[in-house]
Design brief:
Elements (H helix, E strand, L loop, with lengths): L9 H19 L10 H8 L3 H7 L3 H14 L12 H10 L7 H25 L1 H12 L6 H33 L1 E3 L6 H21 L2 H4 L2 E3 L7 E3 L1 H13 E3 L7 H13 L8
Antiparallel strand pairs: 1-4, 2-3
Helix pairs in contact: 4-8, 5-6, 6-9, 6-11, 8-9, 9-11
Length: 276
């Protein structure tokens, strides 16, 4: 006859159940399920025939597999700094064009561009449902049990990440050339700068989901010699990384011809090549 289990309280039952579940999740990993999605509701919203839908996907599981593939392929996170946020650059540079002849003033202007561009990046990412989907897929794709599907999703997410980093890298390279900055000696590339900035902003976006103060708090400070301004944590993180990577290029000659060419390029909405 099996040994009778000792009677325990409701509180003990709760604690044991939760502890056992946490142990299992920590062993297998937390998963995000799409089971709540109604196949019938999707058919209705798509305005297609049930017969056609079930001919394509005889089971909901097959549909959900294709849906995960589609989410991964479509995961192209937006980078506000891509192309160095043209309107932001044009507005600040043209408003303070006379400052650009002085390397210290160019640095101060660059700091302000970093502050505002990082705030823009963070605001878009924090408010974007698409970004939350992208982050959730990155965090949970390893829980996909089908090895082929898991590998396909991983490859799609990796490609999306590379597109995102490439966009940030091109934006920062453009900004550096625009203001006469260069990478410090020993720093590998703008890709490395972009990867670190991406990681910083992405981490803060995740933290802000649980603690909204991370998105709203501002610190009045002058951390990089650009003048006192309200700094978000995202802007502080991005500018700290950029300041460690970039320095004024001593070979840049900021004469009147360069200033005129820059103003003309701004008016024409096309930038000169970096270092020109």
């Amino acid at each position: 006859m099996p040994e009778r289990r000792p009677r325990i309280s409701q509180r003990q039952t709760e604690e044991r159940m939760l502890a056992a579940a946490v142990t299992q999740i920590n062993a297998a990993g937390l998963t995000v399920s799409l089971d709540h999605l109604s196949f019938e509701a999707v058919i209705s919203a798509a305005d297609v025939s049930r017969t056609g839908a079930y001919r394509k996907w005889p089971s909901k599981e097959l549909f959900l597999n294709d849906l995960v593939r589609e989410l991964a392929r479509a995961a192209t996170p937006r980078a506000v700094v891509e192309n160095a946020s043209w309107g932001l650059i044009a507005g600040l540079v043209l408003a303070d064009a006379e400052r650009l002849a002085d390397p210290a003033e160019r640095w101060a202007l660059g700091v302000e561009l970093m502050r505002q561009a990082a705030d823009g990046d963070f605001t878009v990412m924090h408010a974007s449902a698409e970004w939350r989907t992208y982050l959730a897929l990155n965090a949970t794709f390893l829980s996909i049990t089908d090895p082929a599907l898991r590998a396909e999703v991983q490859a799609a997410l990796a490609a999306a990440q590379q597109r995102f980093v490439d966009g940030i890298a091109s934006g920062w390279q453009l900004l550096a050339g625009l203001l006469g900055f260069r990478l410090r000696a020993g720093v590998t590339s703008f890709d490395t700068l972009a990867a670190m900035i991406s990681a910083s902003v992405r981490g803060l976006v995740l933290m802000a989901l649980a603690d909204p103060a991370i998105a709203s708090d501002r610190l009045e400070a002058d951390p990089f010699g650009g003048g006192v301004a309200p700094w978000s944590l995202a802007a502080l993180g991005c500018a700290s990384i950029a300041a460690g990577f970039l320095e004024p290029d001593p070979d840049v000659v900021w004469d009147e011809a360069r200033a005129v060419a820059l103003r003309s390029a701004m008016a024409a909405e096309s930038l000169p090549a970096a270092g020109s």
